[in-house]
Write a structure and sequence with these properties.
Blueprint lengths: L14 H6 L8 H10 L1 H6 L4 H7 L2 H7 L3 H19 L10 E5 L14 H16 L3 E6 L5 E6 L5 E6 L9 E2 L9 E4 L6 E10 L2 E7 L7 H4 L10 H21 L6 E5 L5 H12 L4 H10 L1 E4 L10 E2 L1 H15 L3 H7 L10 E2 H7 L3 E4 L2 H10 L4 E2 L2 E2 L2 E3 L6 H4 L5 H9 L2 H4 L15 H28 L5 H6 L9 E6 L15 H9 L5 E6 L7 H15 L7 E4 L4 H10 L2 E4 L11 H7 L4 E4 L4 H4 L5 E4 L9 H21 L8 H17 L2 H15 L17
Parallel strand pairs: 1-2, 1-9, 2-8, 9-10, 10-13, 13-16, 17-18, 17-20, 18-19, 20-21, 21-22
Antiparallel strand pairs: 3-4, 5-7, 6-7, 7-8, 11-12, 14-15
Helix pairs in contact: 2-6, 7-28, 9-10, 10-11, 19-23, 23-24
The chain binds pyridoxal-5'-phosphate.
């Protein structure tokens, strides 16, 4: 990828370039205000990508800004804070950085390196590490086919289009070698080696290295390694994971970063451990010593209780691609292959999760329930005869990213004081939520709901203008939505176990709820199916057909193109966040956390994080009982009853002031109880307890030194 965006800025506001290239701006409300103030249209048209935006702004606008006192005073304030926060040294007690490996990173919509929840979690992790001063270094891939764009045909079938990286204007810069030339790392398991280019994104104080094989030097099949996220071709997928793990370790070495520990986010990057074994053997350690050294310093997080979610590579494929490399590095063939055996399906292949578990000193699952489930699934995986233990570290969300920045954060600043920013994981920081006047919270909520409806209308209008939509499709896209009606949001990946159509189980009951003359509800759906998941696509089609069906009065909408951008509208703009997976298959779920911290209560089956999060007064829960056999009808019945008997009456019970005070109580409880416990701050402090022994540090005695930001 050639790099072209190189805006010429007036001297006085030249710092905007640095700001644009550090994703820190995305979670600083004043920095967002600054970009909007510079040129709102360019900010919107660039889809919130300031690197591209600066390229679009006219020289006249820039010159005017450089002389506008109001703009300059905001500029100076933002730049001062930016420099202060990004130049504070990280926690100095760490002997070296923790390399955080992940196949996806969802830091911001301007960097298309994620598909869903796993990536968003990785992005939130880097941001929180930056805020907290934990020296993390992210390692991932950049996919040159970019995002898979979702388009729903008139018959409801999902089609995909790739939006290739256009070679410029992403908030990344090439990593360079000692002479300032773009770094090219030859990755050796391939013969001849595949050339890997390295990009660097900056996430506050945390660097994120993104690897690509899509370089002119490489053969077409090698170029394709990093083109698509989770490529469906198994062999290419293996090659992709070799580049991520082995290439990732080599790229770190090439930029002069020697990690003191490695955190593997899911099994995809686990070959990093293989490269580290090779390095120890090359230094002269024995095989058992090398194993011990890598294990001592590796942390592994498993994210799915689904077998299909773990990578399994046939042994012959592994041997073909990795045995020559193992031989050269002194890694014994049988010893290596045994590390990837899953005893529960012996012989099926090399299991990346089993490999990662054996090569880590600590493995964690992403909620308490998931830890129980994962412990059962992986009970056969042993190390030194002992089953590997899986402990829970429940996911959390980066609050400055996910709490609506302009209105809601301002409300929190006013009524909660600085505590919610400084100590977001301390429940006491959130006591002030009680004191927010109902009327103010409700007014902000209504405004955000209006913004969601306007966004949905805007998307439909653009589609209509493009000439590719029929009129009925616009109704399915949400143009009849009414901001005064109780609105349920469901936005997840469309796949069978998430049961997006549970609410559609009994169409008569659903229709009565939706078209009640006095107290109707409406549904907003969004989410992509994996291109290869035909069942997932059928579920989208089912929703879409009902959205087109006049019996439902335009009160069902399917909004295309669920991504981080749309998520930010949805989690604050609907009234209730719906979640209906088949227990116990939801590892954690994080979108409900995002909704709750914005005062959008969750209505969810008891699974994943909601088993820990639900207090009885901060949302609604159903389906806690064990049911053997098909539980669809029972769950749907419980869901309809909760809606009709509790949620609908609460929402429409208005005082003389027009405010549903009892509903607002639930909103406040959602914020107060969920924000501290399911913040990324709490999550990263938990991970810090896993990092400490891996780094040779004693257990938690104090806060990180030099780490946290001055506020
Ligand atoms: C938060 C988020 C997810 C993950 O949500 P789940 O509740 O875990 O399904 C997926 N995609 C986007 C765009 C998100 O923002």
């Amino acid at each position: 990828m050639e790099h072209r965006c190189d805006p010429k800025l007036p001297e006085r506001i030249q710092g905007l370039t640095d700001l644009a290239y550090n994703l820190w701006w995305s979670w600083n409300p004043d920095a967002r205000r600054l970009l909007r103030a510079l040129d709102l249209q360019a900010y919107r048209e660039s889809v919130h990508n300031p690197v591209r935006m600066l390229d679009m702004v006219s020289p006249e606008v820039l010159a005017r800004a450089a002389q506008d006192e109001g703009f300059l005073s905001l500029y100076d304030r933002v730049m001062e804070r930016f420099r202060a926060e990004t130049q504070v040294p990280m926690d100095k007690s760490f002997p070296g950085p923790v390399a955080y490996f992940s196949a996806e990173f969802g830091v911001h919509v301007s960097l298309p390196t994620y598909a869903g929840g796993l990536g968003i979690l990785a992005g939130d992790t880097l941001k929180e590490a930056s805020d907290l001063g934990l020296p993390l270094v992210g390692v991932g891939l950049i996919y040159s086919h970019g995002y898979v764009r979702q388009r729903i045909r008139d018959d409801g079938w999902q089609e995909e289009a790739h939006e290739p990286l256009d070679g410029s204007c992403y908030p990344i810069r090439p990593a360079v070698d000692g002479e300032g030339n773009p770094l090219i790392v030859p990755v050796p398991p391939f013969d001849p080696p595949v050339c890997v280019g390295v990009w660097r994104a900056q996430v506050g104080r945390v660097p994120l290295y993104l690897l690509t094989t899509d370089l002119e030097q490489n053969q077409p099949w090698d170029r394709a390694i990093s083109q698509d996220l989770y490529t469906g071709d198994l062999e290419q997928r293996l090659r992709q994971e070799i580049v991520l793990g082995i290439g990732g370790m080599q790229a770190l070495r090439a930029v002069g970063t020697i990690p003191a520990a490695v955190h593997l986010n899911e099994g995809h990057p686990a070959f990093a451990s293989l490269e580290r074994l090779a390095a120890h053997l090359t230094e002269g350690k024995s095989w058992p010593e090398a194993l011990a050294a890598v294990r001592e310093t590796t942390i592994f997080t498993t994210h799915t209780p689904l077998h299909a979610g773990t990578d399994l590579f046939p042994f012959p494929l592994i041997e073909r691609h990795l045995l020559p490399y193992c031989e050269r590095s002194g890694i014994p063939r049988d010893g290596f292959l045994a590390l990837g055996l899953d005893p529960s399906d012996r012989g099926a292949g090399f299991n990346m999760t089993a490999f990662a578990m054996r090569m880590s000193r600590a493995t964690n699952a992403v909620s308490r329930r998931h830890a129980e489930v994962a412990t059962k699934i992986w009970s056969g995986v042993r190390w030194d005869e002992t089953p590997v233990t899986i402990r829970p570290i429940t996911n959390g969300v980066h609050l400055p990213t996910w709490i609506e920045p302009l209105r809601l954060q301002a409300l929190f600043d006013r009524y909660l004081g600085p505590g919610w920013r400084e100590r977001p994981d301390d429940p006491a920081s959130w006591d002030g939520v009680e004191g927010i006047p109902d009327e103010e919270l409700w007014r902000v909520h209504e405004e955000r709901k209006g913004a969601l409806v306007a966004e949905i209308d805007g998307r439909a209008r653009r589609r209509w203008q493009s000439g590719t939509a029929n009129a009925a499709g616009l109704i399915a896209a949400g143009t009849l939505l009414d901001p005064r009606i109780l609105t349920l949001g469901f936005a997840r990946r469309f796949t069978a176990y998430k049961r997006p159509t549970l609410l559609l189980h009994d169409l008569d009951r659903l229709r009565r709820l939706l078209t009640d003359p006095l107290r109707p509800i409406q549904l907003v759906f969004a989410g992509k199916a994996h291109p290869a998941d035909l069942d997932g696509k059928r579920l989208i089609q089912e929703v879409y057909r009902l959205a087109l069906d006049p019996r439902f009065a335009g009160r069902i909408a399917f909004v295309e193109e669920y991504d981080q951008h749309l998520a930010k509208y949805l989690v604050v703009g609907v009234d209730v966040w719906l979640n209906t997976p088949l227990p116990p298959l939801e590892a954690s779920g994080t979108s409900g956390m995002k909704a709750s911290v914005n005062g959008v209560p969750v209505l969810s089956i008891l699974d994943g994080w909601w088993l820990e999060g639900y207090t009885g007064t901060n949302g609604w829960a159903f389906g806690g009982e064990e049911i053997s056999g098909d539980r669809t009808a029972a769950d749907a019945d419980a869901l309809y009853r909760l809606l009709a008997e509790e949620v609908v009456p609460l929402y429409y019970d208005r005082g003389p002031d027009g405010i549903p005070h009892r509903f607002v109580r639930v909103m406040k409880e959602a914020i107060r109880t969920v924000a501290p416990r399911f913040s990324a701050r709490r999550m990263m402090r938990d991970y810090l307890e896993l990092y400490r022994p891996a780094l040779g540090l004693s257990a938690a005695d104090e806060q990180p030194r030099n780490g946290p930001l001055p506020q």
